[in-house]
């Protein structure tokens, strides 16, 4: 049933025809299967007559007639390609070749019609589209011609030498979480704006082509559109950030934490410098929790006074069976109504200091002459109760917990604009550790400014570790968002976690000490 229409070197045509032929065979077999079921309930005669009808049907593909203006000398080099195009773009970009002046295919977008056909390649010279000569046209004039074409579109191309026709190669299985927002409409450097893929920080992207060092091709995970779009490569994005990044200095926080980190000086911790990573793409892998495994740790991070304790407290209240917090250690005197191991583990100063030496604390600090600290053991206890362990920590502590064992979901709680801070915190107070004469104080303008600049520094140094961002302007809205996102985290299948947490190397599973 395959006919060669008498054109030399016309493999694509035969290939397409053979594809149709096979599809028809399948269709024919399905029909036969359907009618053979009828056979069980109806007469043999009926089936035979149906068979005759089916057998007489023509299943040959109806390809368009070949253009009759193919010149003799073109036969070896010119390829006529006929594609069926829907309203979707073809999925290829074109440009004028600087040296020859010819219109060439610049890029084939993975998953688009051109790619799926396997017939058009990067570098192919475009001579005609539906009989319209391309030679004297600019790419800008050609694009509308292509866009308006629908149904059967015939291309006359001079193939780039040395390329074998093949259907799409297997898709790359590289998934990343984007760590920045991207809008191709606002990017003057993108080679083809229409081919760009916009995304938001946190979106999961599948990178399907990295052949170009500057522009990768990617699909957004979960999108129904399987055609890839152009995104800046990691290298390009790193260069862009390096050029734009203001030297974000870590300003000491004026609003001290109730329990400070293990660096009590309020200076940026020594790891701060080393932590800086350009937020581009984080390689991730799908993860479904084994019910025998502990639940992922939830780490709340943000500048002092932004509302971490309040978020944690509300989450606990909202579902005490699901969420838990580690019981901290303290050296302060136990009050009458308190029970050891409930509000705090009450220990002596000597024991606390021994535990510091033995690295038992994730974080510890001193407040009004007493030590307070969170031990790793108390975190394990909450996880062991099959609860989501909530912790608010200094950002540098996140790095210590960013391991396969804890698989933490890091939530960055961000302050809103200064105007919104002024409005929302007009009645709020916080615990002051600087002014020893007062226990609580109201926020000053300087506190707000520090909160914002501290958040910017955290984002710039540790942004690559943040999985969620919640802007705490209106508290109810921020809390509802956090709660919904955390619920989604529990139910989403799969979740996307850093790829190194899924490799079963011993490297990351070492216990913290
Ligand atoms: N969105 C909000 N609107 C109004 N007040 C808020 C909001 N979020 C938090 N607050 C209030 O701000 C104050 C500080 O919040 P919280 O103690 O939770 O901060 P924190 O991030 O834990 O800071 P620190 O670590 O220094 O204790 C509290 O009085 C809290 O009720």
Give the SSE layout.
Blueprint: H1 11-41, H2 44-56, E1 79-85, E2 92-96, E3 103-108, H3 113-117, E4 125-129, E5 132-133, H4 139-148, E6 151-158, E7 174-178, E8 204-209, E9 215-220, E10 229-232, H5 234-244, H6 271-275, E11 281-287, E12 298-301, H7 308-318, E13 323-324, E14 329-330, E15 345-346, H8 349-357, E16 361-367, E17 370-375, H9 376-384, E18 388-392, H10 395-401, E19 409-414, H11 418-424, E20 429-431, E21 440-442, H12 445-462, E22 468-471, H13 475-491, E23 495-498
Parallel strand pairs: 12-18, 12-19, 13-18, 14-15, 19-22
Antiparallel strand pairs: 1-6, 2-3, 4-5, 4-6, 7-8, 7-11, 8-9, 9-10, 11-23, 14-17, 16-17, 20-21
The protein binds adenosine-5'-triphosphate.
Adenosine-5'-triphosphate binds at residues 255, 257-258, 302, 304-310, 424-425, 428-431, 472, 475, 478.
Protein name: MAGUK p55 subfamily member 7-like
Organism: Salmo trutta (Brown trout)
Domain Guanylate kinase-like: 295-487
């Amino acid at each position: 049933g395959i006919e060669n229409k008498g054109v030399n070197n016309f493999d694509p045509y035969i290939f397409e025809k053979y594809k149709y032929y096979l599809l028809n065979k399948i269709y024919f077999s399905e029909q036969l299967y359907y009618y053979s079921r009828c056979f069980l309930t109806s007469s043999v005669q009926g089936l035979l007559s149906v068979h005759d009808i089916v057998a007489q049907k023509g299943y040959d593909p109806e390809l368009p007639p070949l253009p009759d203006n193919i010149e003799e000398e073109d036969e070896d080099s010119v390829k006529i390609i006929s594609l069926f195009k829907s309203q979707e773009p073809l999925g290829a970009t074109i440009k004028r070749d600087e040296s020859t002046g010819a219109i060439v295919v610049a890029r084939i977008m993975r998953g688009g019609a051109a790619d799926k056909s396997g017939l058009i390649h990067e570098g192919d010279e475009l001579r005609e589209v539906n009989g319209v000569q391309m030679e004297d046209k600019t790419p800008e004039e050609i694009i509308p011609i292509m866009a308006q074409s629908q149904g059967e579109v015939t291309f006359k191309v001079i193939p780039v030498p040395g390329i074998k026709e093949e259907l799409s190669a297997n898709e790359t299985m590289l998934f990343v979480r984007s760590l920045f927002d991207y809008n191709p409409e606002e990017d003057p450097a993108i080679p083809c704006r229409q081919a760009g893929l916009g995304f938001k920080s946190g979106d999961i992207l599948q990178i399907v082509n990295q052949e170009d060092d500057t522009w990768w091709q990617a699909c957004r995970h979960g999108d129904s559109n399987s055609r890839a779009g152009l995104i800046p490569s990691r290298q390009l994005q790193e260069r862009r950030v390096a050029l734009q990044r203001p030297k974000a200095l870590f300003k000491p926080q004026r609003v001290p934490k109730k329990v400070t980190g293990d660096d009590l000086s309020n200076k940026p911790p020594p790891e701060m410098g080393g932590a800086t990573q350009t937020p581009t793409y984080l390689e991730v892998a799908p993860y479904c929790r084994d019910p025998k495994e502990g639940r992922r740790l939830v780490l709340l991070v943000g500048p002092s006074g932004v509302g971490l304790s309040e978020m944690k407290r509300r989450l606990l209240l909202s579902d005490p069976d699901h969420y838990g917090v580690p019981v901290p250690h303290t050296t302060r005197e136990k009050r009458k109504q308190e029970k050891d191991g409930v509000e705090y583990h009450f220990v002596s100063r000597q024991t606390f200091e021994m535990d510091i030496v033995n690295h038992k604390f994730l974080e510890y600090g001193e407040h009004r002459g007493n030590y307070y600290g969170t031990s790793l053991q108390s975190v394990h206890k909450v996880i062991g109760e099959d609860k989501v362990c909530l912790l608010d920590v200094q950002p540098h502590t996140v790095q210590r917990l960013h391991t396969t064992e804890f698989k933490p979901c890091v939530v960055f709680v961000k302050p809103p604009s200064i105007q919104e801070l002024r409005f929302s915190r007009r009645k709020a107070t916080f615990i002051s550790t600087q002014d020893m004469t007062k226990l609580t104080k109201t926020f000053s303008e300087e506190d707000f400014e520090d909160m914002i600049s501290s958040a910017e520094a955290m984002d710039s140094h540790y942004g690559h570790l943040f999985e969620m961002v919640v802007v705490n302007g209106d508290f109810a809205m921020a809390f509802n968002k956090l709660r919904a996102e955390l619920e989604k985290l529990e139910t989403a299948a799969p979740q996307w976690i850093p790829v190194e947490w899924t490799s079963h190397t011993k490297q990351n599973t070492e216990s913290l000490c």
